[in-house]
Amino acid sequence: MGWTTSTRWTRKSLIAERIAGETNRNGHIRECLAHCFKGAPWKGTLWTCWKVTRPDGTIIKYIGCDLLQYSNYDKSWGFKDIEAGMGPSQTNCPLSYLLMEKYDYDYEKGYFIEWVGRVLINYKKKESPLYLKALKAFPNAIQIHLDEKAKRDSEPPFVFKKMVHFSEIIPKGLLEAMKGGPVAMLEADDKAYDQAIIDQANRLTNGE
Fold first, then answer.
1. Is this model's pTM higher than 0.85 or not?
2. Domains held by the chain: number
3. What is the secondary structure of 129-165 as a DSSP string?
4. Domain of 16, in residue numbers
5. 160 lies in a domain?
6. Phi and psi for 72 in degrees, rounded to 5?
7. Nearest partner of 39 among 72, 65, 20, 64, judged by Cα
8. What is the dihedral of CA 51, 52, 58, 62, to 10 degrees?
9. Are residues 119 and 186 in the same domain?
10. Nearest to 66 by CA among 127, 132, 123, 17
């Protein structure tokens, strides 16, 4: 899910290419039902609603979330394709897209419903009939998001570990290992390396 870039694209041509329907070699027919671009002239999010029809007639529907960005370095446009089921950080998806179709996501758990909760919170200050309709369609979404947020907030904070050049800790490790032979040398080197990383992280945390 990395970035794809090209100097032949303009924003307009890139969007046109991203929303184009297709029939792949497996016979899956993909059709864009709606799309809109939200953002600045040089970067933003392309929101899309998709319907995929399989050869057996089964239909799958999902919301696409393409990140678009212009690079002044090589004068290229690029995109990174994501979809709502991955729980993207972007929350400015049009509310009408949530209500347009019955999408193929688990509406009681998973990244999609937690993302819907964040989208609804994003629009909460702009309450409208459409917002109230979306709230009714996804009654548990906001609570699921809040529960997930509380769970994340209760977890121990992540400690940033900066890699330390091995030459910085070899002398200490070798000195400690001289008393115990090859096995002790390996253990001492490992401990010294771990401690060096912890010490460096503490220095960075304290702004040293």
1. no
2. 2
3. HHHHHHHHHSTTHHHHHHHHHHHHHHSPPPPP-----
4. 4-154
5. no
6. -75, -15
7. 65
8. -50
9. no
10. 17
